[in-house]
UniProtKB/TrEMBL annotation:
Residues 391-401 have a biased composition (Basic residues). This is ATP-dependent helicase. Keywords: ATP-binding, Helicase, Hydrolase, Nucleotide-binding. GO terms for cellular component: cytosol. The lineage of its organism: Bacteria, Pseudomonadati, Planctomycetota, Planctomycetia, Pirellulales. Residues 214-366 form the Helicase C-terminal domain. It comes from Bremerella cremea. It comes from the Bacteria. Belongs to the DEAD box helicase family. Residues 364-401 are annotated as: Disordered. Residues 21-190 form the Helicase ATP-binding domain. InterPro entries: DEAD/DEAH_box_helicase_dom (IPR011545), DEAD/DEAH_RhlB (IPR044742), DEAD_box_RNA_helicase (IPR050079), Helicase_ATP-bd (IPR014001), Helicase_C-like (IPR001650), P-loop_NTPase (IPR027417), RNA-helicase_DEAD-box_CS (IPR000629).
Length: 401
């Protein structure tokens, strides 16, 4: 293990690793809370590798919310078990189930999977959980958010009662607490979440801009920042694809990823991004959680996220493991309230930014009345009315204060 850690250039444990590893090695159930990018994967992987029992497997099951995270955790375990005779298999949708069934026949030591595909294999009797000694729920809050609770409970009920259970999560809302109380034995709680929900190493700013001018703002911002690695977040799959096609006309160093892409394409997109084959990744929230790309320097929220927690996880793709990063959010005049909710959630005011020479508003923005109200004289006996002032930026500024 020490040789594998040295080869991976892991020199000093992160706080979550320092807190979880000794407890896990002692066989205790652990409820660990820490934001993404702090080293949670190694915190549970190292104890699993170190305490694998002899005999027929699998001995450990790690449940994760997304396909990308399943691949990432599997790769981390392969890296940390270098030189050891340990087999790890990832089970997730989008890949032929027959190939996974063939790998399971070899009784691998460790299974990493999404709840839906794990249930599929349990139903087909290709996955036997009778010999499990450890179960891990990684990104547990995300799994509950996207509706995996029934599958998780079904899986846990099929696992041996004398297992060790570790639950790792960025947040611990009441549903997570109830899950822990029902399926864990006297769990030791460790909380390494900073008081400030968003990392201090992330500089967070926003632009006020009319919707039709966001593309121009994006191009100007990318030229100004010249990022080595940038993720641009959109709210919808269609919006992601549309923005990719438009930005591709400006640069070839851009790719996109969303739920409609088949799994092979998604895997290649992530691996090419890590390998610096392109600099800009346009994505939906499919990569907003759990994906570890440590050297992202710039995050751009092209669309304000629907939920404040999604903002936290988006900007968490930069500033990982103590590195510095910058996050920009494009806010239209109608989205001032959403920005205020984000600021309340992270207990921090975003800094307003501007690009010299760029007008963020459409020229017709102040012309809010119908044409006849602007172009004709007022009725006789009435005073002329002025066009309503362009008040959106000032209103947004007061709300933030």
């Amino acid at each position: 293990m020490l040789a594998a850690l040295a080869d991976a250039r892991y020199e000093v444990p992160s706080p979550i690793q320092e807190g979880v590893i000794p407890l896990a090695l002692d066989g205790k159930d652990v409820l660990g809370q820490a934001r993404t990018g702090t080293g949670k994967t190694a915190a549970f992987s190292i104890p699993i590798i170190e305490t694998l029992p002899e005999g027929k497997g699998p001995h450990a099951l790690i449940l994760v919310p997304t396909r990308e995270l399943a691949v990432q955790v599997r790769d981390e375990i392969v890296k940390l078990s270098k030189g050891m005779s340990i087999q790890c298999v990832a089970l997730y949708g989008g890949k032929p189930i027959r190939g996974q069934m063939d790998k399971l026949k070899r009784n691998p030591h460790i299974i990493v999977g999404t709840p839906g595909r794990v249930i599929d294999h349990m139903t087909r009797r290709s996955l036997n959980l009778d010999h499990l000694s450890t179960v891990v729920l990684d990104e547990a809050d995300r799994m509950l958010d996207i509706g995996f609770r029934p599958d998780i409970e079904k899986i846990l009920r099929r696992c041996p009662e004398d297992r060790q259970t570790m639950l790792l999560s960025a947040t611990v809302p009441p549903p997570i607490e109830r899950l822990a109380n029902r399926y864990m034995r006297d769990p030791v709680k460790v909380d390494f979440s900073p008081t400030n929900i968003s990392a201090d190493t992330i500089e967070q700013r926003y632009f006020t801009v009319d919707g039709p001018k966001k593309m121009e703002l994006l191009v100007r911002l990318l030229r100004r920042e010249q990022p080595s690695k940038c993720i641009v977040f959109c709210r919808t799959k269609r919006g992601t694809e549309k923005l990719f096609q438009r930005l591709q006309k400006k640069t070839q160093l851009v790719r996109c990823i969303h739920g409609d892409l088949h799994q092979g394409a998604r895997n290649r997109t992530i691996s090419d991004f890590k390998a610096n084959k392109y600099r800009i990744l346009i994505a939906t929230d499919v990569v907003g959680r759990g994906i570890d790309i440590s050297d992202v320097t710039l995050i751009i929220n092209y669309d304000v996220p629907e939920f404040s927690d999604d903002y936290v996880h988006r900007v968490g793709r930069t500033g990982r493991m103590g590195k510095e990063g910058v996050a920009y959010t494009f806010v239209t005049p109608e989205e001032g309230g959403q920005l205020t909710r984000i600021e309340m959630r992270i207990d921090k005011l975003l800094i307003r930014d501007e690009i010299e020479g760029f007008d963020p508003y459409l020229k017709t923005a102040v012309e809010t009345g119908p044409p006849h109200a602007r172009d004709t004289d007022p009725p006789e006996g009435e005073e002329p009315k002025e066009d309503p002032p362009k008040k959106t930026p000032r209103r947004r500024h007061r709300r933030a204060l």
